[in-house]
Amino acid sequence: MSYKIPMGPYHPALEEPYKLDMICDGETVCDAKLHIGFNFRGIEHLAETRNYVQVIALMERVCGICSFIHTLTLCQAMEKLTGQTPPPRAQYIRTIMCELERLHSHVLWAGIASKLMGFKTMFMTCFEIREKVMDVLQAISGNRVNYSMNRIGGVNRDIEDPPAVLAMVEALEKEMADKIIPIFTTSATARSRCAGIGVLSHEKAVSCGVVGPNARASGVAQDLRRAAPYAAYKEMEFAVQAQQEGDVRARLLVRALEIMESCKILRQAIAKLPPGEIHTGDPKLVFTPGTATSRVEAPRGEVMYSVTWKENSRNPARVHVRTPTYVNMPAVRWMVLGARLADTPLIQASIDPCYSCTDR
Amino acid sequence: MNLITALARLLIFPGLLFAVPAAWFFLWVERKSVAWMQGRIGPPFLQPFYDFIKLLGKTTPSREGIGGLLMRAWPLLAVSSAVGAVALLPVLPSSGGFEGDLILLLALLELPALCIIAAGFSSRSIFGEIGAAREAVMAVAYNVVFLLAVVSIAAAQHTFRLETLAGLPSTPLRWLGLAAILVCLPAKLHINPFSLPNAEQEIYSGPMIEFAGPELAMWELSHGLEWVAGTGLVAALAAPHLAFGWLGPILFVVFSFAIVLLLSTASAATARVAIDTSVRFYWQCTLIFAVLAVSTALLLRVRP
After folding, report:
1. Could you report the per-residue pLDDT of A206-245, keeping only the tens digit for each?
2. Total structural domains in chain A?
3. For the segment A271-295, what is each residue's pLDDT rounded down to a tens digit?
4. How far apart are CA A92 and CA A269, in angstroms?
5. Are A2 and A24 in contact (CB under 8 A)?
6. Does the structure show a pLDDT above 60 at A184?
7. Interface membership of B41 toward A (CB under 8 Å)
8. What is the complex's ipTM, to 2 decimals?
9. Considering CB atoms only, which of B37, B130, B271 is closest to A193?
10. In Å, what is the CA distance from B112 to each residue of A142, B189, B287?
11. Structurally, how many domains does chain B consist of?
12. Shortest CA distance to A90 belongs to which of A238, A254, A275?
């Protein structure tokens, strides 16, 4: 007997509202349908009513976790339209913030994944470390969630004491290497919940066009930091982590290894931080009419902004955002086919969905 | 055991009057110790009691198409059978008991699980039904190990009378049996790694989803009582408390407390495993204990 089980829009396994209707046969999922749009806020339309300073503050509120990435992408697009080039120190600070945000996002995801496995001790450990990442972010930007760091042509705040930040980063790296990564890779119960479930084959990953850690877990070794470097990534040495299995464990491993790579990038960036200005300091910005796009590797995958400006306007004519979750979502349907009902919360969470970004 | 001692055991010690505060205490110990292990502060000492009183004061909303009487009967039945199970535990020396009270204890211990299954199906919620189905599958799996372990302990010492069993010296076979019972307790008490029937991230709280107010309070109480009965059974068989006279009950509580801590640690250190892994785990245990129980029975036949 097959029956339909709704997961969401309000469900203990979901942080944000969306809905997965699953047709089940016993404990096995035969089919699934996705519904989104429960959290639509009309931000793209609001952006058209804001000027070029206000729009940065607005787009920062698209997502609570990758708020820096969104303003970075927007600023990069607007820098193309105004012909500004941020000074090298600003580029390095942007890289440091990006990587701290990636650490924050991956650790938060690890916590949520462990909660969905019923592993609440691990959840608490992850969130304790996440607090420390937020402390570093606060030490740099003065804020814990919306950092207000980006401006057209640079950043707003300087890293005044790089050795102190480096010490914090090294302490973080040690905790990640000692606590999170060993538990996820060695715990037998955690492994029994992750290995071989929610498999997304390489072919399916390519045909669905998934991005970010999900693509890399299915053997698609693409990373914009390497493929189309922005900020100071050209000067950083790091490896693009990829796994071939395509299951939840592979996605977990990719993120765990990326945490270590992020720490590596952070150490390099802080050590090489060049002296100089942190922004161009140009008070009068002239926008060339037209459309500019910018792409950035967010913790969840590629974020793209397309910004259009009209002649003599202070406001953008159009700001279009493409978030990684929007492209990753259709893959969930293929991941849950044939899965056990008990695994579906974990499978949907394994793509690290962010519905507030997607619905905006 | 005459009527007065039976009533005293059921209503005063180790029955209702002792078991209910003990249930709240064990629930608190479990929550507090897990909280400490997770770096949280945890609930205050009286929190399970406050929860109970708060739930008792709430009214249950009317539910269309669900038998109200049935919904009230299941938790009450679970509570009374769990109290009965606790009352049978041999805590005081020369407290009575009768030949075969171990079998009654096993039956009473099993009733709350049956009530949960029935309650899940009577709630007519899809999540309740899945939870009940999981509970049923788990019960079939862990009970084989549980019963075989108890039977092998009892058969090896020629008695199904709890007091006699508790008074006899321990043998290696008994320790093996107790280890098997301990392995079954997480599944019986719905804690990690076998917290499948009430997995909130998967199926909300499973069979309990349609329960609120006093009915939920009764379920919480029966859960606490199951803790007392389950850990108490192990403590009664493992601790030599009967030899200590009136100090025995204290030793019994201390031993139960240690088992609660042990189970809480196991639950804090593990993730929830899926249903097929759990069932496979218990059936593999079963094989070992089936062989053990059968060999004990054979050995007993050889004896003069």
Report:
1. 998 899 898 999 888 888 888 888 888 888 888 888 888 8
2. 1
3. 888 888 888 887 788 888 889 999 9
4. 6
5. yes
6. yes
7. no
8. 0.80
9. B271
10. 54, 10, 26
11. 1
12. A275
Give the integer Cα–Cα distance in Å for A306 and A293.
4
Q: Are the beta carbons of B37 and A187 separated by less than 8 Å?
A: no
Average per-residue pLDDT for chain B: 85
Question: Considering chain A, what percentage of its residues have pLDDT values greater than 90?
Answer: 13
Residue A331 in tokens = 């893959």
- List B residues 256-275 in contact with A (Cβ-Cβ < 8 A): 268-275
Over its C-alpha atoms, chain A yields an Rg (Å, rounded) of: 20
Amino acid in position A295: R
pLDDT at B243 over 90: no
**A84-98, A268-282, B59-73: which has the minimum mean pLDDT?**
B59-73
Of residues A54, A65, A343, A9, the one with CA closest to residue A193 = A343
Find the chain A residues whose C-beta atoms sit closer than 8 A to any C-beta of B.
3, 5, 12-13, 27, 114-125, 128, 187, 189-190, 192-193, 340-345
Sign of CA dihedral B129, B134, B135, B140: positive
Distances (CA, A) of A58 to A53, A55, A61, A152: 9, 5, 6, 14
User: A213: domain range?
Assistant: 2-358
Domain that holds residue B140: 3-302
Residue of A nearest to B264 (CA): A121
Helices and strands counted in chain A (H then E): 15, 8
Of residues A5, A116, A128, nearest to B126 (C-beta): A5
Instruction: Return the pLDDT at B94.
Output: 65
**Cβ contacts (< 8 Å) between B275 and chain A: which residues?**
27, 340, 342
Angle between helices B68-87 and B101-122 (to 10 degrees): 160
Indicate which CATH number applies to the domain containing A265.
1.10.645.10
Judge whether B154 and B233 are in contact, CB under 8 Å: no
Query: Burial code of A130-144, b = ≥16 C-beta within 10 A, e = fewer?
Result: bebbbebbeebbeee
Interface contact flag, A120 B201, Cβ < 8 Å: no
